[in-house]
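Thread: "does anyone have the structure for this chain?"

Original post by V.I.:
We have the sequence but no experimental structure in hand. Need at least a predicted one for the grant figures.
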Amino acid sequence: MTDFAGRLRLGVNIDHVATVRNARGSAYPDPLRAAQITEDAGADGITAHLREDRRHVSDADIDGLMGKLTLPLNFEMAATDEMQAIALRHKPHAVCIVPEKREERTTEGGLDVTRDENRIAHFIAPLRDAGCRVSLFIGADRAQVAASARIGAQVVELHTGHYCDLHHEDRWAERDDELTRLRDMTAYAHSLGLEVHAGHGLTYDTVKPIAAFPELVELNIGHFLIGEAIFRGLGPSIAEMRRLMDEARA
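Reply from O.Q.:
Generated one for you, tokens below.
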């Protein structure tokens, strides 16, 4: 397995390769092939979100990834009994618990750990016992970070979508405020002993300020890279993101 020491890890989300495949109901493009290209391009892990409605990644995709993938798999899922059973069967390297609504286009916000603390604590315990590294996808909020540490999560992934939206809407002052919140909560989570990841909506234009956070261990990026692959290819798109991340840390 890849030695991650000393650099910011890049996890690539391959969900939208499956979205394109499913638009035609065909066998291509193959998410597993995308995962293999991703590894060759310098990524450190693969992220896949098996949604309850199976709108992109399928159960067969997860089976294939677990059977052939050499990179660690970060399995995103809702906190449901069905998804817990799938995770316990496969025992991926990491499990990231995310909020999920059928009507949303993509994950709209972070998990509300404070409101559902007892249930989530009991939900993640068997996953930890099975050897999965448990992550909670949350907003940059002090109470959510503290609750995540309290219930035994090993990792928090901070939702960067609002920061990215503000950037692309040219709302610079609000963007900078959100960036400060993300920076402060990265440091706070690290101080509580949590490993800190971040992701959602990151692009070439927005990644470097986030990648520069010294306590940050991993970024998970998907939709932008799959879209950019249309123009420059998946391997070169990932390589450019890797270059920008490394430059931000230099």
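V.I.: this helps a lot. The first strand starts at residue 9 and ends at 13.
O.Q.: and The first helix runs from residue 15 to 24.
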